[in-house]
Amino acid sequence: MKNLGIFLMFIFLFSCSAQKDNPKGNAEINSTKKNLTVIESDITNHFLKTELDKERYKNYNGYDIFIIEEALKKMKPLSDYEFNLKYKDSWGKSIKNWILDTIQVKDLKFKLEKEEVYHWKISDFKIKKVSLYKNEELMTIINTSAYTNLPKRLIIFLSKPLILNDNNALISFDIGNGELGNSAITHFTVLMEKVNNNWEEKEYFHDDVFY
Q1: How far apart are CA 115 and CA 133, in angstroms?
Q2: Rounded to whole angstroms, what are the CA distances from 71 to 67, 116, 132, 151?
Q3: Which strand (E) or helix (H) includes residue 111?
Q4: Cβ neighbours of residue 126 closer than 8 Å, sequence gap 6 or more
Q5: How many CB atoms lie within 10 A of CB 5?
Q6: pLDDT digits over 77-94, tens only?
Q7: Distance, C-alpha 136 to centroid of its chain
Q8: Which residues contact 144 (CB under 8 A, 6 or more apart)?
Q9: Between 127 and 104, residue with greater pLDDT
Q10: E strands, 19-129, in order
């Protein structure tokens, strides 16, 4: 439970209070729009459908899906990418497509310094049985052990896609079993690539959170 609390606090840092005013010229990287763009919607929904159809979730068939309303900031997938790039001979040794170099990462981090938090809406998602939790609501459920009286559910922390170009984007994902508060199933950052008008998962990046 201690490790779970530390992890959730880390996640919260990437989805905490919004900042004001974006640097001029960073509209795509640092968008403050209240709705997803078409490309952001396509990436998000292709990713979720592909991910949740995987074999590792077969034991969770029929579970409700709760997504944390406060999206992880785009700085999260960028930080994970940077971590793997820094340790490319160990954590990042399986990665073949290093789409950003250290200078490009530094530039993107500067552009995201005043990034605002995006709040997910039910209408953003095409998968069925989706509900939303606020961060604070989830923490209350965990701290009071209220999860013991709740229906079976999966809990997802998700970033908005960090769009790198017309055919590539990074997205961070964390999913847990709500029956035990939020017992981790998996968490990672993935490079999404557009192939024949479909967004596919191409490279997986370890995040620098260990528990």
Answers
A1: 21
A2: 9, 10, 11, 23
A3: helix 102-111
A4: 45, 48, 49
A5: 14
A6: 999 999 999 999 999 999
A7: 18
A8: none
A9: 104
A10: 64-68
